[in-house]
Amino acid sequence: MAERKVIQGDFLKFLGTAGARFVMIKQLRRSGGIWLRAQGANIIIDPGPGSLVRCLASRPKLEPSELNAIILTHRHIDHCNDVNVMIEAMTEGGFKKRGIVFCPADAVKGDPVIFKYARGYVEKTVMLKERCDYRVGDFTFRTSMRHIHPAETYGLKFDLNGRSVGLMTDTKAFKGLKTFYKVHTLIMSVVFPERRPAIDHLSLEEAQELIKELKPRQAVLTHFGMRMLAADPAAQARRLTQALGIEVIAATDGLTIT
Q1: Lowest-confidence range among 3-12, 39-48, 107-116?
Q2: Residue 79: left (phi > 0), alpha (psi -120 to 50), or beta?
């Protein structure tokens, strides 16, 4: 029997870089979320449509039954569509009660996106609040202030191999946003190339301003809308690298950061 290949050490892998509904619906970019391995814990962040398929198609394969936790930054379908099936996979169909689900309160109240039966499969469901610390084994992460977005939304900050990582999920740009994201590697959801004041999403123009102020060692752009794809994210990342003197990367489906 062939030996199973694995990614060595801690890493973060993009199982999709789709942002906004049309890129997701047309699957012009995948929408499986982010797999994180850190401090011995396996975590999936924002398992959108196709997350389970992307895990199993990954090379090396990512085994959902080895997950220790699932984190939802917010309840929108491109971030949470596969949360119930990933709970099923993590708990092996509910036969092994294990794992933690972290989510904002509105993901389980009113019109829940996490089914009640699925919540019974996991060890516990933890409601995220702003500027709080959470733990999965030896791995810890912190939530941001509440973002400006139609659903209750929080960004994340954690360490990966001694480097701080910030995940700036969907949000409108607002004063004070940058106070949380002073990190080595900054991952940013950038849906539009130009400002769209009426829509609560970050634009490339605003991302450039934030990167210039925050001065991370590395910035990673992801969660692209149709107009960002038309603008060529890789070309825009090269332009920002030259303009700012900071490494800026446009994430691609399957990109792994170690």
Answers
A1: 3-12
A2: alpha
Distance (Å, whole) CA 201 – CA 77 = 15
Q: What CA–CA distances, in Å, run from 40 to 43, 133, 138, 160, 256?
A: 10, 18, 7, 11, 17
* Domain edges within the chain: 11-257
* Residue whose token pair is 């050490």: 9
Q: Give CA–CA dist 147/128, Å, rounded.
A: 13
Exposure string over 16-28, b if 16+ CB within 10 A, otherwise e: bbbbbeebbeeee
CB 117 within 8 A of CB 108: no
Does the domain at residues 11-257 carry the CATH identifier 3.60.15.10?
A: yes
Q: Per the structure block, which two tokens stand in for 161?
A: 């191999």
* CA–CA gap between residue 168 and residue 121 (Å, rounded): 29
| Cα separation, 25 vs 117, whole angstroms | 27
pLDDT in tens, 88-120: 999 999 999 999 999 999 999 999 999 999 999
pLDDT in tens, 177-206: 999 999 999 999 999 999 998 899 999 999
From 54, 60, 52, select the one nearest 30 (Cα to Cα).
54
What is the number of other CB atoms lying within 10 angstroms of the CB of residue 11?
15
